[in-house]
Design brief:
8% helix; six-stranded mixed sheet; 46% strand; SH3 type barrels; 3 helices; Elongation Factor Tu (Ef-tu), domain 3; mainly beta; 12 strands; 173 residues; 2 domains
Length: 173
């Protein structure tokens, strides 16, 4: 499978919406544009199988999305999708702007300070509203690194590393 064929999880079906076969989606990124431009999406069931479905509608709703799929117009038809992961092909996603990255590309990077100290591995990312926060886990400590320009000096995806310039006291917490 080439990178262009890789399936990227973009959300999870967390419930139904109304009685007309609409689905509530928890978005992993909050980015509705990719899903709105996709003609089809792939639902990954609990057993790992992928099923392609044509997208009928996508609307923002309560921090997530409401998804309609062609051919499904009744709540009873879509209840089986609850718990499924919503995936797109890599080729369906927009190319990120310079200095923008997909979370999945950042997870696993080794994080170093600008002084050459290895802090650990970026294991998680969460949103705070104003900026993302990178969770970096070392051997004996976990660091919360704000994803802001003053701190993130270099992101080298091919080299599997990130270099940060810590703000005063950031690593002491």
């Amino acid at each position: 499978m080439t990178d262009q064929d890789e399936f990227v999880p973009v959300g999870k079906i967390i419930g139904t919406h109304g009685i007309k076969g609409l689905l509530k989606v928890y978005s992993y990124s909050g980015n509705i544009q990719s899903l709105q431009h996709a003609r089809s999406t792939f639902l990954k069931g609990k057993d790992g199988t992928l099923c392609e479905h044509d997208v009928a509608s996508v609307t923002a709703h309560a921090g997530g999305f409401i998804l309609g799929l062609n051919g499904f117009s009744d709540i009873n038809q879509v209840q089986c999708f609850i718990g499924s992961e919503l995936c797109l092909k890599q080729s369906q996603l927009p190319v990120p702007d310079e200095d923008e990255y997909y979370w999945r590309d950042l997870i696993g990077l080794t994080v170093h300070t600008n002084q050459g100290v290895v802090l650990g591995t970026l294991v998680d990312i969460f949103e705070t509203g104003s900026n993302d926060v990178y969770v970096v886990r070392g051997n004996f400590k976990e660091y919360l690194i704000p994803a802001i320009g003053e701190v993130i000096s270099l992101v080298d995806i091919p080299g599997n590393k990130m270099i940060i310039t810590p703000l005063d006291g950031l690593l002491d917490l």
